[in-house]
Amino acid sequence: MSDLATAVTPAARLVIVGVGLIGGSLGLALKAAGFDGEIIGSGSREQSLKLALQCGAIDRYELDLQAAVSGASVVLLAVPMGVMRSVMGDIAASLPADAVITDAGSVKGSFAEDARAALGNSLARVVPGHPIAGSENSGVAAAKVDLFCGRRVILTPLPESSDAAVATVRSLWEMSGAEVHQLSLEDHDAALAASSHLPHFLSFAMVDMFAARENKDDIFRFAAGGFRDFTRIAASDPVMWRDIALSNRDAVISLLDEYSDAIDRFREQLQDRDGKSMALMFSRAREARRDWAEMVEGRTEVVPAAHCADKFTDSEDK
Length: 318
Description:
The chain is of the alpha/beta class.
């Protein structure tokens, strides 16, 4: 049994607000790992909650948020970034004094701002978090028991976050099979803007550009593996990624400017038929990509959760 079950007693009550891919997968993973507390789902769509109950991701559900969190030990907010503040405001008065609050959002600076606005001085209980796991598919129907096996989860504690709250959230994710790291809010948002957010926005933009062309049918009909690999993430949830873009606006704009400069340099090389410079750039990129692949393949040193079996592997961006 993990430290989480010990820390919050066998009667622990985890409330997952937003039981989609991430929330549903966490529920499945915790149950597979032997979590013997109660897992409650909550959200606005009863059909999704019923499906989460049927697939075993939750023990029961509550449509009323206040009722759902009234006896909570831990509350996970797995909702779009754009509604984090309103959800925390809705549940603030109903939370037990010792309930821990965490999230699964992709932008931590904006979540911290939302928590401060909604929860005031009750920030010792708040531990922002981000599982670096996901899929182009969304919803609880896409949930997988091994989604977090060997994947990174980044915690970005606030200055006010208590050590006990951080330990509780860490244990929750470790029990799911994840490898937990800590970063500052700023370092997280800068790193994820580069490694996850920008690639998603470039993929969306390219597919949208081709979809507007008159010859789009030919483009898509004859597209091969490179197009499939680069554009897979453009099938992701549009609302979620709209909120991520707006929540991490400054970092993304800075990277878009930097990327535009890189594209301009490549355009100049093409214009000048400068094959030597192009080849050098391609070679640098290839070596950097290979170095990254070697790094992630050899990085895991933690022991996977029992339910992860042989799936302790590299992550998918979310």
